[in-house]
Amino acid sequence: MPRNQRGSIRKELRAKGQTWVYRYSVSKPDGRRVEHTQPIGLVSKFSAEADCWTEIERLGLLHQVNKPSREGVVTFGQLAEHFIEHELGNQSESTDPRSHTTIENYKRNLRLRITPQWGKRPALSITPLEIEAWLRQLRQTHKLQNPTLDRHRRIMSLVFKSGQRYGLIPRGEEHNPLKFVRQRTISDFSRWC
Fold it and tell me: Residue 2 pLDDT more than 50?
């Protein structure tokens, strides 16, 4: 889990005087973390630290924290990390909170099977046919049952949707390969595998 999930602020002496500066990290495509800074305003204007945080929120800068850089290719692993942090994190302010067991289930499936398989791949290069082949392989080698395979598919789809929601990858069905993975009834799925 990345540190400084909210970023931090500090006072710096600049040409115009003491200035509040917002600091946050961004993930590069190669996995390196790079610090970015953004001046917020003069200390004379925002005397209290709380006022500075209010201005940061008003400017919409909090969404930049721990966000993968758009300068390069976003990997599925970066999307999964972002999903865990922003969708499975603190549920107290969520409009549709997930239960503790659901959160742990999603994290476990991502950690054990999904991210090891797809984590290093550029997210937009993953194809529906590759996912279908992977699900068949899981059924054959690990003897996973249909509901478990469907859960893996749904979790991957949620990761893609979250990435689209936060603007990490382009929006639209054509950018979520899970939209094109064939969904079958449980009896059909066993014949398919």
Answer: no
Closest by alpha carbon to 182, among 129, 118, 119, 117? 129
Which is nearest to 2 in space by CA: 24, 29, 23, 30? 24
Domains, the chain, ordered by start: 8-68 (no CATH), 76-192 (1.10.150)
* Interatomic CA distance for residues 178 and 180, integer angstroms: 5
Extract the tokens encoding 161.
């949707």
Residue 160 · residue 177 · CB < 8 Å:
yes
Residue with tokens 């190669």: 30
Cα separation, 129 vs 146, whole angstroms: 18
Q: What distance in Å separates the CA atoms of residue 188 and residue 110, rounded to the nearest whole number? A: 25
Tokens, residue 19: 């200035």
pLDDT digits (tens, 9 = 90+) for 164-181: 888 888 887 777 888 888
Q: Cβ(75)–Cβ(121) under 8 Å? A: yes
Helix (H) or strand (E) run with residue 95 in it: none
